[in-house]
Structures are given as structure tokens and as C-alpha cells.
Amino acid sequence: MKVGMNLLLWTDRPDPSRHLELLRAIRDWGFDGVELAADNMDPADARAFGLILRELGLGCTTIAALDAAAADPASRDPALRRGALRTLKLAIDNTRALGADLLCGPLFQGLGRFSGQGPQPDEWRYAVETLREAGEYAALRGVRLALEPINRFEMYLVNTLADGARFVREVGLPNVGLLADTHHGNIEESSVPDAWRQAADCLFHVHISENHRGVPGSGHAVPKEVFEVLQEIGYDGWLTIEAFGRQVAGLNARLHLWRDYSAHPDDAAVQGVQYIRSHLPPA
């Protein structure tokens, strides 16, 4: 397994002219790679980042999220479904430009939209159709999609890995699977290890994220059982830390970040990679 770090701890607008030293630090802290937001990145920046990452010897995965006001695969409005497909195609192209082959995120529906009821059959069908089209495009570009079930307070279409597995099986493409996130699983699953075992054949990617979004290992969402079950099911992909802090102003309101969870903004990375590696077999 490889250990990655999502740059959302420091920025929601990665910039190759500003973040070279950060990337060097991430490498020196012991990470194998990074995760970058690809849906709002200029293609020229993606190419520049790709060169930097190769020079530093860092691997890469990417992430995207969809604003329901402009892009929503599950919407009854065809314009919003087309917007979702445009956003996803841009993210897929940027993923390739970065030298990555996996794009992840809560791509089932646009975020910020709630209907006051559970998913309706037509919403589910629209989302499956849109993600199938995105998956077909991704396959042509050599990219896999890892769809992330997230908690009921952020999305209503897919909240559990079981529902996510049903969704990707309906999409029916070998390059479309699931992302399992410890933060969301801590909220929605009766047993995170059991949920991961049952969805093992669909599991493409893992986010290590604490219940409070701080330093992995300092809460209760990332116990040793998480790593034991991954070894049990033969998972050999990325374990990417997704942590957040108040230093990224654009995320505070969206993720309800009102207090700090560590003494230093870098702690989730520096201490988190040590915690993860302490639970992995020696290389």
C-alpha cells in the first residue's frame, strides 16, 4: 500500500508556482504521493504539476466534487447533468496531465442540494447514466473513477458502501469503483470493517480521515482494525490522508470547521503518515 496526502489541508487552489516547497516537504515527511483537486485546475497547471511530481518522485491521485448549482449527475435538469459531465471530463483530462490514473470523490450527485426525501428512482437512474458516460470517457484516457459515498449531512443519494457497490454494478464498467472513507464510514456504517469486506471487489481507493477531520489516530475513526481489514482483503492501493484545517477559508463553511484539532497545521500530515505506517507491514 502507498500513503498519500491530500493538499486540501493547505489549499483548495493548488498552484505549481506556489506549492513546490510544500510538495518537497510532503515527500520528505515520508509520503509516496499527493492528491490534488482536478476539477477546478487549469490544464496548464496540471501539466506543470505533472512535471514537478515526476521530478520529485511523487505519485498522484486526484479528487473532484460537484457544485449542485452548476453540475449534478442526479438532477432532473438536463443542463445540470451536462454540466456534471463537462466538469468530470475536465477533471479526467487533468488527471492524465498530472500523470495520475485515478480520480475520486463524491461524484454521485451535486453537493449542497437536498430534496427533503431519499433518492428517487429517476435521480438514481440519471446519476448512473451520467457516471457511465463519464466512466467510458475515463476509460479512453486510462483513468479509473473511485466514487465516494459520503454522510447524510452532505449528500443523500449514496451514503453507504453497500449502496455505492450497487451503484457501480449498475454502471457496469471495470474502471468505475468505490472510495472508502473512514470519516464517512464512522457516521454511516454499522461496522466499517464489515462494510469494507462486503465491498472489497469494488474498492479502488481509501481515504484516511478522522471523525473530527484532524490528525489520523487522534480520534476514533481510524483504529487498527481499518488496516487489518485492508490487509485481509488484499487491498494494495493508496491510503490517502484527507484532513482539514481552518487555514483554508473556502472550506470552513462547507465542512463546518470551527476549531483547530492540533497545535500545528502540518500535524495531520507529519503525525498522520507516521501513524499509518506504524500499522502497515514493513516494506
UniProtKB/TrEMBL annotation:
The keyword Iron-sulfur does not apply. Keywords: Isomerase. One of its GO terms (molecular function) is isomerase activity. Gene3D superfamilies: Divalent-metal-dependent TIM barrel enzymes (3.20.20.150). Residues 23-278 form the Xylose isomerase-like TIM barrel domain. SUPFAM superfamilies: Xylose isomerase-like. This is Sugar phosphate isomerase/epimerase. It comes from Cohnella nanjingensis.
